Fold:
Amino acid sequence: MVKTSIKDIARAAGISHSTVSRALNDSPLVNAETKARVRRLAQEMGYSPDAAARSLVSGRTRTVGVVVTTVADPFVAVVVEGIERTAYAHGYSLILAASHNEPQREIAAVEMLRSKRVDSVIVTSSRVGALHQERLGSAGVPVILLNSHSQQQMPNAYSVRVDDVHGGRLATEYLLGLGHQRIAHVAGLEGHSDSNDRLDGYLSALAGAGIDYDPDCVVNGTGRLDGGPEVLRSLLALRERPTAVFCYNDMTAIGLLSAARNAGVAVPRDLAIVGFDDIPLAAHVAPALTTIAQPMFELGERAMSMALVLMGHQGIAPCDVTDVILQGQLIVREST
Amino acid sequence: MVKTSIKDIARAAGISHSTVSRALNDSPLVNAETKARVRRLAQEMGYSPDAAARSLVSGRTRTVGVVVTTVADPFVAVVVEGIERTAYAHGYSLILAASHNEPQREIAAVEMLRSKRVDSVIVTSSRVGALHQERLGSAGVPVILLNSHSQQQMPNAYSVRVDDVHGGRLATEYLLGLGHQRIAHVAGLEGHSDSNDRLDGYLSALAGAGIDYDPDCVVNGTGRLDGGPEVLRSLLALRERPTAVFCYNDMTAIGLLSAARNAGVAVPRDLAIVGFDDIPLAAHVAPALTTIAQPMFELGERAMSMALVLMGHQGIAPCDVTDVILQGQLIVREST
DNA sequence: TTGTAAGCGTTATCAT
DNA sequence: ATGATAACGCTTACAA
Structure:
């Protein structure tokens, strides 16, 4: 048994391959017993339909492409879980590609997906979203940006995201409410709109409280666990030491937490820390992390649902759903 | 610009589609300027080769299927990262499917991958690995099991795994060395060979120390964060309370850690806890988790490399690489 | 109800 | 160096 095609089955059954095709696709135009015989044969011969051949004629692959920065990030992992569950429920498969935060790889990934003729593409934390929407959107393949947005508002710009400005403001205002006057911010990687927006929220909260913005208080992070020690060093090196810090995401915050513990900086007494995401483990570090919760799973679900709609899967009009914005929520724990 | 095929380019250039194909594939049998003209046109017309059509004739897709339990598990996420990096480096794409620990879905996932004609399949924590190896292996598609093994040793059984028995023994012997006499074990989900093997290691260490095995000391876990409270309850309900516990994985251990903290059970004083995996966040919980480190990234890398070899990518003989077994390593932190 | 034939977008084998 | 033509495995008119 190497590989069986409908022609092989046709030969074995002594009928034409079109009848086999019809039988396998449950067409009403086939004699009931012929259908049964064909199906039994298909089973016995280990037949598996060739998706490539099928999509060559149908023009659809029942596959969506998912571009992430890396799966080894808990936030991304849960988002992908949300996408996967929804996709599976509707008979779609996922091709996964990682950009590793490099625009070049992101572009290459989307090109690969285009070549594989995926029916839709979901890109998380894109740095060049508008480009994809131009290349694919105009070719009829919906592109959904997840937690990023084009600078220029395009006609075919679909996105699902959390309100990052609001989240950043929420976090900062909470720290201000606690009485902190000197609040630092650890940004994410440059070029990401979510990081920029969270920074904007931070700045807006500061401005709202009538606090002068000190550029030194904003330090660059990596969005990863390992940046902690360096971030801590930067913060401690400031002329006037901040009493609180709002981090781009939970991984950054947890890395900082760890570095603080090793350096004997007590959290929250010496330094209050707020994260962003509420990844599953945020509640389990010590001290448990105060953070802005993103509905990660739902973000994935919504993005995939939007893709389904755009591929014509429900009766909903496409124009209803161009830009879904969800709100984050402050979760107070022990790190503040 | 909807979709451009080589025929469209041929028409625009006034040549045959076979010449276009040759030009695009950099065949030496094409006039240099024709080649240049074709390529410019392809660029301008936004041409993207149809992977389905190509693989229909070539018989290969340059795609591997990856079946995981769920991506929303840090161990799995890092493994997939390892697979992805290696795959990308060799021009392969990944189709991702989740089994959610249900044998039925695992089988459906593999069937989908078979239909998509992936060149190879990697299945993590399989519950029915032998089945896939029979269905796909005999059809010429290599199947690599990652951290699971068939009960019966088959001819085409490829696997990459950590030595779970050894790891389980290591963890338990370490606790014994600390003086613990009553050590519990929280198992993973039933039907997984890795969980069974870790249990075997635990039992073997106990036996080696001349300690009678008390079946009540082995409780069932879920492998997830959320099982903590119930596991703790089970442990506290035991007639003679254990002073230490070895958990199937870090997520189980961290869930337990959390539950212990909430219940006022001091770790490690009242209860010492050892995990398994060494997920990135294991060092950042409190107390930091003692665990058996698996080379997660390398596991993924090795599995993908093995797939490459089996697909004929290097000069290595296939027989050299049927079963890679890596050793885990004890990492002592604060939870013991 | 079934069979024949065309076509999806490629690559590959022939000729020319 | 280039062009016809067949083939990959399937779906789908169109015939019978």
In short: The mean pLDDT of chain B is 94. The first strand of chain B starts at residue 63 and ends at 68.
